[in-house]
Amino acid sequence: MTISVHTLKPAEGSTHRRKRIGRGLGSGHGKQATRGHKGNKARGQVNPNFEGGQTPLHRRLPQLRGFKPVNKKVYALINVGALQSQFEDGAVITPDLLVERGILRDLHHGLKVLGGGDVTRKFTVHANKISESAREKLEAAGGKVEILENV
């Protein structure tokens, strides 16, 4: 037997009739129309959040107060004491150098230098932000601070 366009048909068992629900007893899906007996599911739409009488999830969870700012900036933080122990006198410290040396893992939105610890060496620090105490300590030791543009 040769195969041609007019003799093609799907493989045995690969096609199924469409389930026509609620079209009379002769359809095989009449009377309750596959919805079972009585109850909310048989009669209409069920609220997707309804949990069968159990206290719903939205009432079990605590009400969190406040809000989360959408545009919050997160800065990588480092203290001047850490710079003192990691760099030699006269070093130029940039955010990329700190990541390269493994002192910081991620810069997030930039670098902020804080005033924890003491400084005796002269550094030139490039940072996006710096605290007043850190600036005073660096400049008192003879160093310089350069503020970078925020990204």
What does this structure look like?
This protein has 151 residues and is an alpha/beta fold. Among the domains are: 21-48, no CATH class; 76-147, Ribosomal Protein L15, Chain: K, domain 2. Helix content is 20%, strand content 13%. It contains five helices and six strands. The strands form two sheets. It has a three-stranded parallel β-sheet with strand order 1-3-5. It is elongated and about 95 Å long. The termini are far apart.
How are the elements arranged and paired?
Layout: H1 40-43, H2 57-60, E1 76-79, H3 80-86, E2 92-93, H4 95-100, E3 111-114, E4 124-127, E5 129-130, H5 132-140, E6 144-147
Parallel strand pairs: 1-3, 2-4, 3-5, 4-6
